[in-house]
Design a protein that fits this description.
Elements (H helix, E strand, L loop, with lengths): L4 H10 L4 E5 H16 L4 E5 L6 H9 L3 E4 L2 H9 L7 E3 L6 H9 L4 E4 L2 H13 L4 E6 L28 H9 L4 E7 L10 H19 L6 E3 L19 H11 L7 E6 L1 H4 L3 E12 L4 E5 L8 H5 L5 E3 L8 E7 L8 E9 L6 E4 L21 E4 L2
Parallel strand pairs: 1-16, 2-3, 2-9, 3-4, 4-5, 5-6, 6-7, 7-8, 8-9, 11-13
Antiparallel strand pairs: 1-10, 10-11, 10-15, 12-15, 13-14
The protein binds ligand LLP.
Length: 387
């Protein structure tokens, strides 16, 4: 399932650049692989909408039977509009507003993943007003190091996310006083773009310990949710377009001790949509400096902020040139008035010219959703490649 260069070049002729290209054939193959691997253990996967909420992408994922993991009221409404069922929708987030909680209550969602004592009290109060009982899970901070970028690691103590073990007694007291809350699960998430899978083994062992604390107090939980974070291969997307879902789920089967009838839930974003997306851009100018050649392209940090924000690596391919003989090094930069508007430094490309079409790879996750209109730029269109 190769990147179809002819298709991209044709589209780039009759479509303004930059644009996002979503490879629906790769998306479907990824979903199939994930579903097959999860079904083996009867694991439930929720798609984390925050990674990519394009309607066609959402609908395709929904058709495979995935649930939804939402972090705002608008994400809940969008998930439901695009065919996800409320009974498979989770609502997470450290700062849920009253309006957003009310949306979740009105729609009778599967669970609110709660992150503080006060949040539980507020959900209780709002549920009481509606004469409802809200199902909640406690988002627990497992204090596991995900070995990923410091801005996308979340499971360490004194993070803004989650509840720490020393708060458990207080949480139980709060729950005792909240008649409109039903505790149904525990939720964990240790970070994003995790490629060292041993972090998940550590997570399982921590979950077992934490579960024990609840079991000793005879608190039975219907589900455990271990979050998302499974990383993709940004370096070799053609070699590894689909991540090893089997190996990933097998870790949980091997190390996580589920109680009888307990369900295991996941919230995957990037691993489902990361590699299927490309940001297609055109070279505007080549500027040869004394030490550095710049390839100035018409996409910028406004369309894909990851390199500027996290120093994230994205592979860059010149789609117009197939010769690999005359490789040159370029800093591939955008047009935005910020020095951090750079997709890659010293990127080895064939001799590149004005008008060449360049693909910034693996832009399917946290690309379009994080786009902004700085410099009054237009949010680009999406082109779908069906295969
Ligand atoms: N569950 C929770 C509670 C999360 O906070 C996240 C992501 C996910 C699931 C999905 O994580 P994934 O499977 O996609 O790694 N903008 C950053 C990533 C931020 C991730 C935020 N939370 C980036 O571009 O790398």
């Amino acid at each position: 399932m190769e990147l179809n260069k002819t298709f991209i070049l044709e589209k780039a002729c009759d479509q303004p650049t930059p644009f996002y290209l979503y490879r629906m054939d790769l998306l479907r193959a990824t979903l199939e692989a994930c579903k097959k691997a999860a079904d083996k253990y009867n694991y439930k996967v929720h798609y984390a909408l925050k990674a990519n909420s394009d309607p066609k992408v959402l609908q395709t994922i929904g058709e495979f039977g995935f649930g939804a993991d939402c972090v705002s009221g608008q994400e809940i409404l969008t998930a439901l509009e695009n065919g996800y069922s409320a009974s498979h929708t989770a609502f997470a987030g450290v700062g849920k507003t009253d309006d957003e909680i009310n949306i979740g209550l009105d729609k009778d969602i599967f669970t609110f993943n709660c992150e503080s004592v006060q949040e539980i009290e507020v959900i209780n109060e709002l549920a009481q007003k509606k004469g409802k009982v809200a199902r909640i899970a406690l988002r627990i901070n497992p204090n596991v190091n995900a070995n990923t970028h410091k801005y996308i690691t979340t499971g360490l103590e004194e993070n803004k996310f989650g509840i720490n073990k020393w708060e458990f007694e207080k949480i139980l007291k709060t729950l005792d006083a909240c008649d409109h809350i039903k505790l149904t699960g525990l939720h964990f998430h240790i970070g994003s773009q995790i490629v060292d899978l041993s972090a998940y083994r550590s997570l399982c062992l921590r979950v077992n310990e934490i579960q024990q604390w609840f079991i000793e107090r005879r608190i039975l939980l219907e589900h455990i949710n271990v979050g998302g974070g499974l990383g993709i291969d940004y370096y070799q997307p053609d070699l590894n377009p689909i991540i090893d879902f089997e190996g990933y789920f097998a870790i949980f089967n091997d190390f996580l001790e589920l109680q009888p009838h307990q369900e295991l839930h996941f919230e995957l974003g990037r691993a489902l949509v990361g590699t299927m997306g490309e940001l297609i851009t055109k070279v505007l100018y080549i500027k040869n400096g004394q030490r550095t050649n710049f390839a100035i392209v018409d996409a910028g940090m406004t369309e894909l902020i990851r390199p500027a924000l996290y120093q994230a690596y994205h592979k860059i391919d010149n789609i117009s040139k197939s010769d690999t003989v005359s490789d040159v090094f370029y800093d591939v930069v955008g047009p935005i008035c910020e020095s951090s508007d750079c997709f890659g430094k010293r990127v080895k490309l064939p001799l590149t010219e004005r008008g060449d079409i360049v693909a910034i790879r693996c832009a399917g996750a946290y690309g379009q959703v994080m786009a902004n209109q700085y410099n009054l730029r237009k949010i680009p269109d999406v082109v779908y490649y069906e295969g």
